[in-house]
What we know:
By secondary structure, the chain is of the alpha+beta class. The protein contains 16 helices and eleven strands. A five-stranded mixed β-sheet has the order 1-2-7-4-3. The chain has a two-stranded antiparallel sheet with strand order 5-6.
Amino acid sequence: MFEELPQGAILPSFLGFLAGLLAVHRLYSSLRSRSEMKVDPPGPRRLPLLGNLLQLDLKRLDESLFSLSKTYGPVFTVHFGPKKVVVLAGTRTVKQALVNYAEEFGERDVNPLFYDFNKGHGIIFANGDSWKEMRRFTLSKLKDFGMGKRLIEEKIMEECHFLIEEFEKHQGKAFDNTSVITYTASNIISAIMFGKRFEYKDKLFQDLVEKDCKLIHLSGSASITLYNFFPWLGPFLKNWRDLMSLLESIRQHLKSIISELQATLNPDVCRGFVDVFCTRMQNLEHDAQDVHFHDENLLNSVFNLFGAGTDTTASTLRWSLLFMARYPQIQDRVQEELSRVVGVRQVQMEDRKKLPYVNAVIHETQRLANIVPMAVAHQTSRDVTFQGYFIQKGTAVLPLLTSVLHDESEWETPNTFNPSHFLDEEGNFIKRDAFLPFSAGRRACLGESLAKVELFLFFTSLLQRFRFIPPPGISEDELNLTPVVGFTLCPMTHRLRAVSRQ
Length: 502
């Protein structure tokens, strides 16, 4: 091409050609850099030592992070003190990470508090082969003990009768239902763990349940959040000292129950999860998996299941009754459908498909209540490129469930209690992709199917028998829906009247 140019124009043309090649090279290098995903997720400018802590409300961290996502996008970085955390926001992003990249985002970020809890053992706050075997074994045994089957349905229906009896004792007068609902939920997981239920007046049972709930509440306090990023603060924080005291007391309670079951163990009679685990420990075949069956994994697995199986279900049920009292017109429709379809007989799980409005109300309760707003922190198992950003192995990741359950692009009225979110134009129940109260992927709640059965049967049994209204002198509009923020979000202490419909 240069032969056709005048001699004096060859050098400038050649230089121009080189400049063009350089520009193409720079563009290619830029594109290659992006294709290799070495771009860190964006985020607010951080301060030395403090990171972004001054820009966050530690008393409602999920809302602060949700607000930041509107500025920095669905994948962004924040620094909690010296600790780097990647936040995932929005339905599409959270589902893509936890489901499509399940392996890469599938480890647990074991922060100082989680390590205090389990020391790397158990199911929730563990990683590696031990976690895999404990989760596999636990899920298998939960299914054996009836999770998702008729057997567990019968246990729950039996417990419904005890719950209704407690409500009837108040004879329509206003009372705080927190304790009795929590004992009820705890008795279901206790039946699976220990093969028995406890009387609601059992002082040791009351102490265990109440301490467990207090532990969960304190775990989400602002001071404990600081402890997780500055562990040396622990001994100076009253909440941390209280947590350690509660933890030790709970562990001693559970050890006592387990020891009693071990002392009366009969290989021919299986009472529950503890019996199966103990039998497995006694009959080790020295397979690779057998090294994980020991006392610490037993105690911590029971501790995990007892806490998770009590608090979240009880809080959701308390929210459901509060919403019914707050929105009487919705309660009317629930009770009309129950009366028309079921009548006065005991509701069964097979009725759920014939109760679309009731089912929608329960789902909407879970969505708006948003019990676990930030899931439990994950950690990347390897270097990963995700949505154009490079995330290094071992990085803490927060799947922001608040941003999913309140996603403005997914829900017509994200901040309003609206059962129509789960109904089509003909009034049929519909599933929604953005309904992720149990999270998703490898770390999804393994008690999801159990919780669904409990919520349906407890809620319908109570709404069949009672109408829930505010106490005298308080209108529906005055009922406070502001949550108490802990590790989970539960209703404020309140009193309701349970007025008999029969």
